[in-house]
Design goal:
By secondary structure, this protein is of the alpha/beta class. It has helices at about 5-10, 20-30, 50-60, 75-85, 100-105, 120-135, 160-165, 170-175, 190-210, 215-225, 230-245, 255, 285-320, 350-360, 360-370, 380-400, 405-410, 415-425, and strands at about 40, 65-70, 110-115, 135, 145, 150-155, 180, 215, 250.
């Protein structure tokens, strides 16, 4: 599209920004406007989706007809069908007269259905019929009515997820999504953030005779770094707060931080060393801990599977079969007891419960602490890595819990008896 035409649209509808994603969204709207195709605008809450349907209507052959913007999420479910499709007199309590509904009033015009993802399933079925045939029936009525309405819908809901959860009809989604338009979140629009801040500051200056705000370099970087979960609406609120409450009209980074929420829930500042909500830090160590837990659980599942296979082989041999167990048939069967370090196993005459009673917390702690990598089972590299990871996981868990077996077992997600069994096997 020609830049002159694009800039003219921006000036007319007070659209501020020059990011490629924003320009592409406007370009698509102007291209689809002369057609009768349905449009679905997708974007987060607060990005300004309500401007695009107006641009589409005003640039279409329907521009001299009626335009209605309806927030589907704000109408109570009990009256939604009546509001959209109208009702007959006496069809429900309070229906003292007839109502045309939006589809009747907006005939030959445009309906903007905002938050269309909030529609109940029954209303979705009626909307689908209107889109496919142009026909609808009033609430409490029997006669079929015709309407020629163009639908432009918008949503901030993940429609694919809503379809998979049975909250939105797949056939209606494809009918609405004939032409998709994506409006980017503010955090992805780069220097548009600074342009919008300047515009909102100017509006406050004109409306309330306030001094105009200026930003230091540090404040500019902070605005660009912030994730803006509330998008343009949040930026406008913060600009208005600064205009009224800030004594110094040259806004520094420190002043700006007082108005920007700095917490995890608001997705505030992007920082690789950002502290977690419990006061700790999200580091590589915590990610490695998570991987250790996954590998530990995987090892337990493999051991259980191998034991089942070994038992099945023994049964086959007992019935006169010729099947010979192999340590490599499934995935690295547990190493024979003779190959394991003796100082991590209970004595041969002890049961697991005897070992639990005979050894204190510090004894088990010492046993795992003294395990050397040189004494790992003689197996393939993959198997040795699994043994090493599991031993390291048990050792670290016991260290963190000061040798307390019960707490270590709970942290690893296993029972105390399983912990002893794993020590015996290893």
């Amino acid at each position: 599209m020609e830049q002159e035409r694009l800039q003219e649209i921006k000036r007319k509808y007070n659209v501020v920004g020059n990011s490629d994603a924003l320009n592409h969204a406007l370009d698509v709207c102007l291209q689809v406007a002369p057609t009768e195709l349905s449009v679905l605008i997708v974007g987060e809450s607060g990005v300004g989706k309500e401007v695009l349907p107006r641009i589409i209507h005003d640039s279409s052959p329907r521009r001299r007809e009626k335009y209605f913007a309806i927030n589907c999420g704000s109408i109570p479910e009990g009256t939604l069908d009546s509001e959209l499709f109208g009702h007959e007199k006496g069809s429900f309590t309070g229906a003292i007269g007839e109502s045309e509904g939006y589809f009747g009033i907006a005939d030959r015009g445009t309906l903007f259905l905002d938050e269309v993802g909030e529609l109940p399933l029954a209303t979705q079925a009626r909307l689908l019929r209107v889109l496919e045939t142009g026909e609808y029936i009033r609430v409490g009525g029997q006669s079929i009515r015709k309407t020629n309405v163009r639908i432009v819908a918008a949503t901030n809901v993940n429609m694919r997820k809503a379809i998979s959860e049975g909250k939105f009809r797949e056939d209606l989604y494809y009918r609405l999504n004939t032409i998709p338009v994506f409006l980017p979140p503010l955090r992805d629009r780069g220097n548009d953030i600074l342009l919008l801040f300047r515009m909102f500051s100017y509006q406050m200056m004109e409306k309330y005779r306030l001094p105009r705000l200026e930003l230091t370099e540090g404040a500019r970087r902070l605005l660009l770094k912030y994730k803006w979960p509330g998008n343009i609406r949040q930026l406008k609120n913060i600009t208005e707060q600064l205009s009224v409450l800030s004594e110094d009209k040259t806004i520094t980074e420190e002043q700006l931080l007082r108005f920007i929420p700095d917490d995890e829930d608001s997705m505030a500042l992007v920082s690789p060393s950002r502290p977690s909500s419990d006061g700790g830090s999200k580091t590589y160590e915590s990610e490695r801990q998570m991987l250790f837990n996954i590998l530990f659980e995987l090892r337990n599942n493999i051991t259980s599977l191998n034991n089942d296979v070994a038992e099945l082989k023994r049964q086959v041999m007992a019935l006169g079969g010729t099947l010979t167990p192999s340590r490599h048939d499934v995935m690295a069967l547990p190493a024979p007891m003779s190959e394991l370090p003796h100082h991590v196993m209970p004595e041969s005459g002890d049961t697991l419960s005897d070992a639990a009673n005979a050894k204190g917390d510090s004894d088990i702690f010492d046993e795992v602490e003294e395990v050397d990598d040189d004494k790992q089972p003689d197996d393939s590299d993959d198997t040795m890595n699994i043994y090493q990871v599991e031993l390291e996981q048990i050792r670290k868990s016991l260290i963190r819990n000061n040798g307390n077996r019960r707490k270590a077992a709970q942290e690893l997600g296993i029972s105390e008896r399983t912990l002893y069994r794993r020590l015996k096997e290893l």
